[in-house]
Amino acid sequence: MQGYQKYQQYQKKSSNFKGNKALKYIIWAAIAVVVFLILKSLFATSAEVTVTYPGDLNPELNMEATSAEPEPTDTAESQTNDNSNGNTNVNSNENINSNNNTNVNVDSSEADGFDIASCDRVYSRGAAAEKKVSLTFNVGTTKEGEIDKLLAALSEKNAAADFFARGDVAEENNELIKKISEAGFSVYNLSYDHPKFNSLSETAIAEQLADAESQISQITGQTTKPFFRPPYGEANESVVAAVATQGYCPVTWTVDALDWSSDYTAETSKERVLSNISNGAIILMQASNSTTATIVPQIIEELGESGYEFVKIIDLL
Fold first, then answer.
1. 114, 228, 229, 234: which could join 164 in a potential S-S bond, CB 3.0 to 4.6 Å?
2. CA-CA distance, 271 to 295, in Å (whole number)?
3. Which of 217, 259, 212, 257 has the alpha carbon at shortest distance from 231?
4. Is residue 23 part of a domain?
5. Stretch 37-55: mean pLDDT
6. How many CB atoms lie within 10 A of CB 304?
7. What is the CATH classification number for the domain harbouring 302?
8. pLDDT per residue as tens digits for the range 153-170
9. 155 in helix, strand or coil?
10. According to the model, what pLDDT value does residue 72 have?
11. Domain assignment of residue 39, yes or no
12. Which residues are within 8 A (CB) of 60 and not within 5 positions of it... i.e. 6 or more apart?
């Protein structure tokens, strides 16, 4: 009997020990579950890192957009485009990068009397009925170069002309754009930082035009509408439609003087223009080049003697 009592006491102690041990396992398991749930909650709410690129452009497009209007001695990327008249267009540029956050509220479907609704294509020339031509100059570099000499020559010859400026150039050199505007010339849109528009989304196109408009118009006090010059002369049907919704009509050129190219002298650039001229031609040159300032008076004089009249684009189209 005594042995049985000892056995019962042993069993009771053993039962209590097993119960305590089981309780400990349950507690540890509960703690483990709570820790797991806490860790899971922390990792589930971690912030996702998103990389964005300015201007709604991807890195590849940004690389392409790093070329702008070159000085004659610059090494620049070139793109060749053929116009319907068989002449070759070449445009090149150097890099300027900046951002624009200023908004200017300028909206007009008939800026300068031009009905944007009538623009359904890229214009590389005007009507051939009369001996009228347009001088146009791209402002694609912050370097002022010979801009004063060019503006003086245009004024002296009383020749109409138009300018197309990049938005980032206007942002970096307000005075350059101001000089052109105060000399009485229109400054139209050359995009913000000169990407290839055929590769852009409609949203990115709108941003390029709006950013350039904002920078330029706050200097000139005038809208850059209704004309836009597509970088590299590229504008497919989608681009034409996209820029039209923003109030712009794309204008390229009939003949490029290649005055920026080190392969051309002042004489060969001048001859390139004179030999490719025709009624309704739009002539492309670079605003700040010394070659440009040298040949413009000669081109105006020689074409004038041949009976050509220099008119603004608004009057040519």
1. 229
2. 10
3. 212
4. no
5. 45
6. 13
7. 3.20.20.370
8. 999 999 999 999 999 999
9. helix
10. 36
11. no
12. none
The answer to whether residues 91 and 79 touch, using CB atoms and an 8 Å cutoff, is yes
Residues in the chain, overall count: 317
Q: Is it the case that residue 93 has pLDDT exceeding 90?
A: no
Q: Residues 258-276: pLDDT tens digits?
A: 999 999 999 999 999 999 9
What separation in angstroms does the CA of 273 have from each of 21, 63, 134, 214?
100, 32, 12, 33
Mean pLDDT of 93-105: 38
SS (H, E, C) 270-317: HHHHHHCCCCCEEEEEECCCHHHHHHHHHHHHHHHHCCCEECCHHHHC
2 in any annotated domain = no
Regarding predicted confidence, which is higher, 203 or 81?
203
Name the pairing type of β-strands 309-310 and 132-139.
parallel
Domain count, the chain: 1
What does the alpha-carbon distance between residue 175 and residue 158 come to, in Å, rounded to a whole number? 23
Q: Which residue has the higher pLDDT, 91 or 192?
A: 192
pLDDT computed for residue 27 by the predictor = 79
Q: Which two tokens stand for residue 4?
A: 């049985």
Structure tokens at 254: 């009939």
Predicted pLDDT at 16 = 52
User: CA distances (Å), 27 to each of 16, 39, 256, in order?
Assistant: 17, 19, 84
Please report whether residue 47 resides in a domain. no
Which of 108-112, 118-122, 242-246, 301-305 is the least confident region?
A: 108-112
Of 193, 151, 150, 152, the residue nearest 172 (C-alpha) = 193
Q: Kindly tell me the burial class for residue 231, based on how many C-beta atoms sit within 10 Å of its own C-beta (0-12, 13-18, 19 or more).
A: buried
